[in-house]
Amino acid sequence: MRPNKQEIIDMLSVRGEGELNALFARAYEVKKKYVGTTVYFRGLIEISNICSKNCYYCGIRSENPNFPRYSISMDEALQEAKWAFDQRYGSLVIQAGERIDTQWTDFIAELVRKIKEMSSGKLGITLSLGEQTEETYQKWFDAGAHRYLLRVETTNRELYKKLHPADHRFEDRLLSLERLRKVGYQTGTGVMVGLPGQSIEDIADDILFFYDQDVDMLGMGPYIPHQDTPLNHLVEAFDPTEAFTLGLKLIAACRIALKDVNIAASTALQALHPQGRERGLLAGANVLMPNITDTKYREGYQLYEGKPGINENAAQVVQELQRSIESIGETVGFDQWGDPKHFFRRQGQ
Ligand code: SAH
Ligand code: SF4
User: Fold this and answer.
1) What's 331's DSSP letter?
2) Cα dihedral 216, 183, 2, 168 in deg (nearest 10)
3) Which of 43, 174, 248, 262 could form a disulfide with 340 if both were Cys (CB 3.0 to 4.6 A apart)?
4) Global pTM value
5) Is residue 116 in contact with ligand 2, taking CB distance under 6 Å?
6) By percentage, how much of the chain surpasses pLDDT 70?
7) Which tens digit of pLDDT belongs to each residue from 3-53?
8) Which residues sit with their C-beta closer than 6 Å to ligand 1?
9) DSSP E strands, the chain
10) What is the DSSP letter of 299?
């Protein structure tokens, strides 16, 4: 049943510790019932910060000259993937700025093929590489990727226009989502919350959009202003506690409204609170994306201010994360893809 908009607005408007905890507890019950309490890890490789786009909120947009650009080599990326495989991660996310040139799209296809080969087909691969042609999506799918994340950022068209240059079109984002589904990907989208000029009603519309689009996965998070962007005037007044709470409310409302989708507790939550990810799980998320990119590249991938640069490519960190997940009564789905249950329901399986 299509969720009720007023009910979503009410959930997103909850204030005060008691009411917030009641909302998170309700979302947790829905999570237990529909997807269970197994957490799936996706090892995140931020493979390049080169981007041809210029989204006004993003620290690695093309017009920010204040840091060097990098691309991780095939061998290094394969090493990182192998490390995740050895740690028994079920899947990887390969993310980067947007590039559509053939040299890049071929490189990604080759990398996907090699990761599949290295892991005897066992590592699941999610890509998050922006808007592409159907041919490119097909090429990467044929190479072995089976999930794709492309946030729409906001479904308020006016707001989308304000946050992007004129040639970044919301309709193109939608078209890309359509292409992904046509090719056969498990498709994820998402938005940022706390954007300047965004209302609670806008966010409720975002959640209804996820429902109407029948999405399988959600990667969403609070917007965090960045100094080297046209929106840098927002840095000073930014309130991390408020942004964090809104991020958690968003997860809870999505879990209650959409039930069987996969929801990631975003890195941005972790940036705002040391226990951000665990709190995200308790509000309804069921996927974590530990960053396994070599730490020497982390400075270069600052989408927002204060992005955590901690080293998660150490076996000890995996153990600590596992312990902290077990301490909240959940288990880690090692060696499992953890595909969204929603995808199979959508396929009628
Ligand atoms: N270039 C690809 C993937 C990398 S960006 C793409 O844009 O799809 C991944 C996500 O980072 C974006 O979708 C956006 O939602 C998020 N992001 C960018 N700047 C941010 C900021 N300042 N605060 C929070 N999230 C941000
Ligand atoms: Fe590039 Fe993605 Fe950042 Fe936009 S959000 S500037 S497409 S990396």
Assistant:
1) E
2) 90
3) 262
4) 0.95
5) no
6) 98
7) 999 999 999 999 999 999 999 999 999 999 999 999 999 999 999 999 999
8) 51, 57-58, 95, 97-98, 128, 130, 150-151, 153, 192, 221, 223-224, 226, 268, 303-304
9) 38-48, 91-96, 124-128, 147-149, 186-189, 192-193, 217-222, 262-265, 287-288, 331-332
10) G
As given in the structure block, the two tokens for residue 296 are: 């020497």
Give, using CA atoms, the residue closest to atom 10 of ligand 1.
151
Q: Dump pLDDT digits (tens) for 254-294.
A: 999 999 999 999 888 988 998 999 999 999 999 999 988 88
Query: How far does the centroid of ligand 1 lie from the alpha carbon of residue 74, in Å?
Result: 23
Q: CA nearest 266: which of 254, 253, 251, 256?
A: 251
**Count of C-beta atoms within a 10 Å radius of residue 44:** 24
The CATH number of 5-346 is which of 3.90.1860.10, 3.60.15.10, 3.20.20.70, 1.20.58.760?
A: 3.20.20.70
